[in-house]
Amino acid sequence: MVMIILSLYLNNKPIVNNKLMLTKTKLIEQIEKFPEGFSIDELVERLILIEKVELGLKQSENGEIISDSDLDREIEQSFK
User: Fold this and answer.
1) How far apart are alpha carbons 68 and 13 in whole angstroms?
2) Alpha-carbon torsion, ordered 61, 49, 66, 73, to 10 deg
3) Rounded Cα gap, residues 2 and 43, in angstroms
4) Stronger pLDDT, 9 or 34, i.e. the higher one
5) DSSP state of 15
6) Which stretches of 1-80 are DSSP H helices?
7) Residues 35, 31, 58, CA angle at the centre, nearest 5°?
8) Mean pLDDT for the stretch of residues 19-41
9) How far apart are alpha carbons 56 and 40 in whole angstroms?
10) Cα separation, 66 vs 8, whole angstroms
């Protein structure tokens, strides 16, 4: 599956996930940060982290945030 994802990116066919797209440039930047030898798992983990951070930033920019007190209440309610 990872090879399919990488192949789609390298063939200029972006994949949309959670309404965010990873550009080839960003993918190449991340690959260049790795040592000469690395596992596909390490790359996938890095890409997932980047996606989550970008999604969080986008949500923040769109005002999709909750206060600390609301979060505390939600956590409390989930454990009842």
Assistant:
1) 39
2) 180
3) 9
4) 34
5) P
6) 2-10, 24-33, 40-61, 68-78
7) 130
8) 83
9) 24
10) 36
**Residue-wise burial string across 11-37, b where 16 or more C-beta atoms lie within 10 A, e elsewhere:** eeeeeeeeeeebeeeebeeeeeeeeee
Residue ranges per structural domain of the chain: 2-78
Whose structure tokens read 């390298």? 10
What is the C-alpha separation between 60 and 1, in angstroms, rounded?
Answer: 31
Q: How far is CA 37 from the centre of its chain?
A: 22
Structure-token pair, residue 41: 């798992």
Residue with the bigger pLDDT between 69 and 20: it is 69
Structure tokens at 69: 């007190």
Residue 54 confidence class, pLDDT cut points 50, 70, 90: confident
Two structure tokens written together for 4:
């399919």
Length of the chain in residues, anyone? 80
